[in-house]
Every structure is written in C-alpha cells, then in structure tokens.
Design goal:
Elements (H helix, E strand, L loop, with lengths): L3 E5 L15 H15 L17 E3 L14 E4 L6 E5 L3 E7 L4 E7 L1 H5 L2 H13 L6 E5 L9 E2 L12 E4 L2 E4 L1 H12 L6 E3 L23 E7 L1
Parallel strand pairs: 2-3, 7-11
Antiparallel strand pairs: 1-12, 3-6, 4-12, 5-6, 5-7, 8-10, 9-10
C-alpha cells in the first residue's frame, strides 16, 4: 500500500504563487526548498491556474510543474505526483482514499463553495477511480473564518442562510460550515473530516491573507502518494 503524505505551508515557507508580482526565480526557489524539505521531485508537482471555478482536472501525462492546468481541483492515483492548492484566505481542501489510493486537492473560496466544488471532486474520485465515499478522508486547512469574513448583503444566498451571521447589520460568511455540510451530505463520515481552527486574517503573520493585504503571496496544501 502506498504511503500518503500531506502538509500545509505557512509564510515561513515563502510565497508559492507565480501570479502575485514576486520574482519568478524567487518563487521557484521557494518551491525547490519545499520539495527538498519534504522529499519530492519539484518537476512532478502539479499546481493549478486557479480561476474560482468548479472545474475538476484529472491529472494526465501532459501535466507538470511548468504546465499547470486551469482548474480549481486536481485528482490522481499517480504515485510520486504531489498535488498543490494555493490560497490566501480561500479554503485549501485535501482529500485521500487510502483503500483505492486516490488523492485530490480543491481550491474552495466563496465561489467554489457556492458551486459545491467538493462534491464535484468527490464524484470525480468515485467515477474515475472507483473510490467509496466511506473511505475518503478530508483535511481543511486554515482560511478566513466567520469572525473576519465580512461580505456585502448582495452576496447573501438563502440556500446558505445557515452559514451567514448578521452582526450589527453586517453579513459574515462561514465557508467552513458550507464545506462541512456539503461533505456530510455527500456521505463523508464526520470522523473523517478535520478542519483547521485557524483564521488566516486573524493570523496573517503566520499565513498570507488577501483581506489583510491585497498584494500578498500564497501558502499551500500539498498531498502525494509515495
């Protein structure tokens, strides 16, 4: 059986995104340092051109570090092929099925949550690799929490009224509650869901936070099969 390894980075690991204005060489060096730290081949790392969609991409032989697909979720059963999701307030979600040896990552910001990208990721794991929903584990990394995630009234959707808090006439959104609810509806065992209790905005010295500073880097969630 393959060993499944995963981790979430912090500011200490440096910015990992190429689209935020940082020197490309510096970003690549951050990736190289991370690969060296965790013992994987940077050339086999698959990250994404994230577009706040519900597009799920099944990793293929054309994908590599220098050719990221345009999507917001990745799924594979390929060994030694790390998958990366980058965020700075959005929610990084990691999935794994240690029976069928299938892994996935998803970028679940507000749009991803509203479009139920976690359900589409789970469906891809099941349809493409025959994963049983009962065998899938989900890890949710640090993201902006309801304490800090104020949104305009126009964002309010009655379908997700359970995830909104109204305080002093202001609307605050709980993305974690939406994602957890969607996972449970899909059939994920609640004991298989682990959610970080850290808010990226509150802890913007530890994590990159777009709300705290718009021109900022990205931290990441990574998972791979050894």
């Amino acid at each position: 059986m393959a060993k499944i390894s995963y981790f979430f980075t912090t500011r200490l690991d440096g910015n990992l995104a190429f689209h935020v204005g940082e020197n490309t060489t510096d970003v690549t060096n951050n990736h190289k340092a991370l690969a060296n730290k965790f013992g994987y081949d940077i050339n086999k790392l698959i990250h994404m051109k994230q577009i706040h969609s519900d597009i799920v991409h099944i990793v293929n032989d054309n994908d590599d570090f220098y050719n990221p697909p345009e999507c917001d979720a990745l799924v594979t059963n390929k060994k030694h092929t790390p998958l990366m999701v980058m965020v700075a307030d959005c929610t990084p979600v990691i999935f794994y099925d240690d029976v069928k040896e299938v892994i996935a990552v998803a970028h679940a910001g507000r749009e991803g949550a509203f479009k139920n990208i976690v359900k589409k990721t789970l469906l891809s794991m099941a349809s493409k690799f025959h994963s049983n929903i009962k065998n899938i584990y989900v890890k949710i990394g640090a993201n902006i929490d309801v304490c800090c995630y104020e949104v305009g009234k126009e964002i309010y959707k009655s379908k997700f009224d359970y995830a909104f808090e109204i305080r002093d006439g202001k609307y605050f959104l709980n993305i974690n509650k939406i994602i957890k609810t969607q996972l449970l509806i899909c059939g994920i065992d609640k004991k298989h869901i682990e959610i970080s209790d850290e808010c990226t905005h509150c802890k913007n010295k530890k994590y990159y936070s777009y709300r705290a500073k718009k021109q900022t880097g990205r931290f990441a969630g990574v998972i791979y099969l050894d």
